User: Which sequence fits this backbone?
């Protein structure tokens, strides 16, 4: 069954039942709400309850104490891959979201997301903050099951995907359900305000609130009042700012928890907190990674410092508080766990990689299987066998196919014991190779295409987040193209935005075989190209500015189908 048919069927079933039966309404009242909080580049050690003696996180510590904690919870070493797995219950290599930018964070639109699964089961769904799985139709959060969205574009604020004129973390211009909206206040506060409003408005229905902050990702912008206490402790400026961002986050988590109390929703709301990867290398002080509870390495690494993150789950109605669970778990487990907890149906033909963790969370006596989790990471278009990968069973961890660590005895991954356990190494290598072949075969590694001229998105704003090609990048001289597909033939208006030119220049845009051009005067920073007659179908879109002998790419392309 195709995903859209499934979603239609499941949605109709849920709605039909709801209309037909008061019992269902009663039952749906018992369905838990889900508040899923994920932060960006906050490491395992960036929490008071993980032994950080300087950083104060009273609200997150409280959440940990009131819920269960998975001690060994794994994600990918960077942002978008983690989010793809979180949203689908599948290894990200199955989903086309295989890197963070240059078109590789776009997730295949046929993937079924947590939001789609819960929406089909009658949930209200909202996302506030960071999506990072595609900025254009049909990959945006509201194309993928979220009924309400207030999100930044790309992988974070202050990136080339920002709406033109977005000032940064303070008063960001955000995407509200497909329209740019100038906000006021600090980004994390803005997302929380929107989440609180969403929860309040939907207090009588089951809901999924995905609260995904771009903090404490770089750049380290945060109100100074949060940073000052950490400067006073003598911490370096980077660490003080990261801690300030986390302190602000913690305060916002406190606001969310207080709202659940106020609305008397806390009992039957599943609150989950996790982060998407380890601490960012750019925030080191004099080359040193900040406190990370003894884990090895940082963001971008498959040692535990890059991929082992905090994971707390609070559900007072059903999960006894204060337990630490040692079975290994991962981002791929969220979808099966939450689908089970919320009574939602999964499409039968979808290969989920994760396990339903409920038996562990509810403390049922379950035979829990030892399994092996896999994480791999690369930059660019295709992963390479054995490059930056790890396989993890309950006891062992194999890194890059050749280093073996006994994780129970050596959580800091200091002693490679591969030579002592050739049988374990051989078995894990075999498992990894099978996994690599399997995930690579799902969709291959071509990026998805952006659809132009669709009723759902017109105009489309293309940014450097998703452009492609050997010279594509985020520097002033970068030059790239977009892999697009024109949904409907017709007349289009194409507007280009670029860095101000220092002399008369020629600007050009090609879409497939069609090329439109203009001459702009010195100082110009945009041009509108009228009457591009585009055919339907796949097309490469390129746009560039030539000044004298130099040719550089544009910053934005706005493609509008004319009526
Ligand atoms: Ca991240």
Assistant:
């Amino acid at each position: 069954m195709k995903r859209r048919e499934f979603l239609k069927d499941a949605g109709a079933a849920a709605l039909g039942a709801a209309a037909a039966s008061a019992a269902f309404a009663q039952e749906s009242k018992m369905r838990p709400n889900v508040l899923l909080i994920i932060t960006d580049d906050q490491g395992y050690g960036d929490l008071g309850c993980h032994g950080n003696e300087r950083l104060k996180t009273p609200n997150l510590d409280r959440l940990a104490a009131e819920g269960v904690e998975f001690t060994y919870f794994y994600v990918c070493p960077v942002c978008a891959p983690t989010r793809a797995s979180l949203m689908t219950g599948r290894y990200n290599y199955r989903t086309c979201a295989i890197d963070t930018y240059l078109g590789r964070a776009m997730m295949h639109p046929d993937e079924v997301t947590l939001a789609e699964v819960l929406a089909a089961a009658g949930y209200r769904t909202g996302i506030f903050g960071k999506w990072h799985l595609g900025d254009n139709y049909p990959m945006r959060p509201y194309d993928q099951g979220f009924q309400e969205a207030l999100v930044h574009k790309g992988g974070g604020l202050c990136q080339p995907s920002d709406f033109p004129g977005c000032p940064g973390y303070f008063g960001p211009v955000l995407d509200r359900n497909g329209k740019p909206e100038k906000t006021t206040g600090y980004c994390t506060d803005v997302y929380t305000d929107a989440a609180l409003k969403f929860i309040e408005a939907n207090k009588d229905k089951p809901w999924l609130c995905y609260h995904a902050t771009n903090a404490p990702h770089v750049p380290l912008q945060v109100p100074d009042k949060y940073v000052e206490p950490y400067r006073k402790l003598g911490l370096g400026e980077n660490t003080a700012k990261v801690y300030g961002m986390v302190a602000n986050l913690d305060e916002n988590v406190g606001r969310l928890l207080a709202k659940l109390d106020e609305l008397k929703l806390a009992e039957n709301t599943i609150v989950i907190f996790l982060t998407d990867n380890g601490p960012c290398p750019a925030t080191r002080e004099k080359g040193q990674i900040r406190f990370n509870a003894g884990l090895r390495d940082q963001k971008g690494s498959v040692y535990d410092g890059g991929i082992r993150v905090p994971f707390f789950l609070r559900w007072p109605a059903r999960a006894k508080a204060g337990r630490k669970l040692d079975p290994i778990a991962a981002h791929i487990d969220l979808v099966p766990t939450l689908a089970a907890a919320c009574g939602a149906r999964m499409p039968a033909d979808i290969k989920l990689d994760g396990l339903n963790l409920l038996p562990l969370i509810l403390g049922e006596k379950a035979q829990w299987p030892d399994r092996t989790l896999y994480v791999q990471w690369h930059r660019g278009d295709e992963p390479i066998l054995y490059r930056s990968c790890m396989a993890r069973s309950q006891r062992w961890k194999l890194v890059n196919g050749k280093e073996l660590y006994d994780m129970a005895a050596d959580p800091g991954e200091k002693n490679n014991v591969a030579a002592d356990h050739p049988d374990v190494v051989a078995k894990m290598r075999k498992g990894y190779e099978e996994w690599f072949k399997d995930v690579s075969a799902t969709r291959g590694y071509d990026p998805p295409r952006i659809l132009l001229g669709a009723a759902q998105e017109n105009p489309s704003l293309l940014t450097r987040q998703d452009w492609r090609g050997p010279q594509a990048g985020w520097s002033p001289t970068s030059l790239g193209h977009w892999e697009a597909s024109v949904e409907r033939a017709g007349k289009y208006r194409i507007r280009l935005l670029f860095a101000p030119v220092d002399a008369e220049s020629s600007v050009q845009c090609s879409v497939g075989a069609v090329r439109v051009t203009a001459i702009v005067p010195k100082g110009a920073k945009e041009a509108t190209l009228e009457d591009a007659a585009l055919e339907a179908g796949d097309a490469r879109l390129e746009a560039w500015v030539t000044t004298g002998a130099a040719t550089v790419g544009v910053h934005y392309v706005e493609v509008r189908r004319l009526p």
